[in-house]
Design a protein that fits this description.
478 residues, TIM Barrel, Sulfite Reductase Hemoprotein, domain 1, 3 domains, five-stranded mixed beta sheet, 41% helix
């Protein structure tokens, strides 16, 4: 192993790198930035006002939840008001449990996002499918999807097939498990249905709350497209990243590393903060790593490896005095790409004349934890709030973090509603899920243990449950 090297981005874990033109928007566009409003969709004025703020902050595509037909119909009012104000930003309808809402929205907006798991029958835990049952389920997908495809074809509406880790159908789980491969196979089933229908206006996304899973799923997806010779644009996002510095590190590691690898046509940074807070990081990721931008600073990071006294391989990363927000992104991406080859278990960051060693140490800890290499504090999985959220997710997340961040061996999911809750927090040790206005349901693993707890006492109830389960440790004082 060489004593030192310059970071080399040409050696990637996929056999080839392809730049996939954004077919869904008609041509080879640069990487575009997406965000999502968190206002109720039926509140036209509030949603329009937030759309305007997002566009002013750098958002190029706005996603709006449409959980039902009334919300889908109101997208027409929102779009009309935006156009009256001179904003031509493309709108994306976010569809979950109601395929009919997708069919209404597709006649109004530029794109609809659907989840494959919502176009299948729920078998309530069925774990074994015969070949005949498997084929019949695939036929049902085609039957249920064809009305939407016809509407999209007529209206020129794009579809994003959004596959989320933890939201796979029971049939896919039975065959592939809750795995990156299962995510890819789930999406490709829909791609084949669309191709058979003669519909190609598609975007694909593979999202997870864990960096490695999200990256592996996207690499596998690209491999499948290379094998088939059928290329589609890819939307990148690390879902439920949480809030604060650790969430930005996770997002940079996942999204930035894939962009640097030549993968990605649109991106969304998902933070459990105000939607406008997502845009600065998203803009920098596009600036630094999008394929139409200069990917690296004039002076790249110099990396060297050494062994600590404990025999741990450490990657030393020396930077030329970058501003901290850029350093966060560069170091997260550089370590993530380098770790695919070196498997270093430690990190030491230096930044020229910067002397705040505690902040650099904390940044290194965030990077190691983001990749699941080591854990220094509790891990928090938290969705960005949206129009479905019926309690103050941002405030609740901060309350949970203040009380439990010292539990470094636990992961806690704070979710806004049942749409993303029970499925996508499946690997968390505990779940804290919005159950209605001012109500929280608390999970141990996948099991709802305490239902409809008042929000003002929910954190106390969570702590009591953690103690009852024997997972609590007292915080050590310095």
């Amino acid at each position: 192993m060489p004593d030192s090297l310059l970071l080399n981005h040409s050696s990637l874990p996929i056999s080839r790198v392809v730049h996939i033109g954004d077919l869904a928007l008609g041509g080879n566009h640069p990487v575009r930035i997406q965000s999502m409003v968190n206002t109720p969709t039926l509140d036209t004025a509030a949603t329009v006002a937030q759309c305007i703020r997002l566009v002013e902050a750098g958002c190029e595509m706005v996603r709006i939840t449409a959980p039902g037909i009334r919300e889908a119909e109101n997208l027409a009012n929102i779009k009309r008001e935006l156009r009256k104000k001179g904003l031509k930003v493309p709108l994306i309808a976010d569809i979950h449990f109601n395929p009919k809402a997708a069919e209404v929205a597709a006649q109004i907006v530029e794109k609809v996002r659907i989840n494959p798991g919502n176009y299948i029958d729920r078998r309530h835990g069925k774990a074994d499918f015969s070949e005949a049952e498997y084929r019949r389920e695939q036929e049902k997908i085609a039957e249920r999807l064809s009305p939407l495809l016809a509407i999209c074809k007529t209206n020129g509406t794009a579809i994003r097939i959004g596959t989320n880790y933890g939201s796979l159908s029971e049939r896919i789980l039975a065959k592939y498990g809750n795995t990156p491969q299962g995510m890819v196979e789930s999406a490709m089933e829909f791609v084949h249905v669309c191709r058979d229908f003669g519909f190609q206006n598609l975007v694909l996304s593979m999202k997870a709350s864990r960096v490695k899973i999200m990256m592996e799923a996207n690499y596998l997806l690209v491999e499948r497209m290379i094998e088939s010779g059928y290329y589609l644009p890819i939307h990148l996002g690390l879902t439920e990243a949480g809030s604060g510095e650790e969430a930005r590190v996770k997002s940079a590691a996942g999204i930035g590393s894939l962009l640097a690898s030549g993968i990605g046509n649109t991106i969304r940074v998902s933070l459990a903060e105000a939607p406008e807070a997502e845009l600065p990081l998203a803009r920098q990721l596009v600036k630094f790593y999008a394929r139409n931008a200069m990917c690296f600073p004039k002076q790249q990071a110099r990396l060297s490896r050494f062994f600590s006294e404990q025999g741990l391989e450490v990657l030393k990363m020396q930077y030329p005095g970058l501003a901290f927000d850029e350093l966060l992104i560069r170091s997260a991406v550089d370590f993530t790409l380098s770790h695919q080859k070196s498997r270093a278990g430690g990190i030491l960051i230096t930044n020229c004349q910067q002397t705040d060693d505690s902040r650099l140490t904390r940044l290194g800890q965030h990077i190691l934890q983001a990749l699941g290499i080591r854990h220094f504090r509790g891990e928090f999985i938290a969705c960005p709030s949206c129009g479905r959220t019926q309690f103050n997710l941002i405030e609740e997340l901060e309350k949970v973090k203040r009380q439990t961040s010292h539990l470094k061996d636990l992961s806690i999911a704070v979710m806004g509603c049942i749409v993303n809750g029970p499925g996508e927090m499946a690997e968390a040790d505990y779940g804290y899920v919005g159950a209605g206005p001012g109500k929280v349901t608390i999970y141990k693993g996948k099991t709802a243990v305490l239902k409809n707890i008042e929000a003002n006492r929910a954190v106390h109830a969570l702590i009591k449950l953690i103690k009852t389960e024997g997972d609590w440790v007292e915080e050590s004082k310095p």
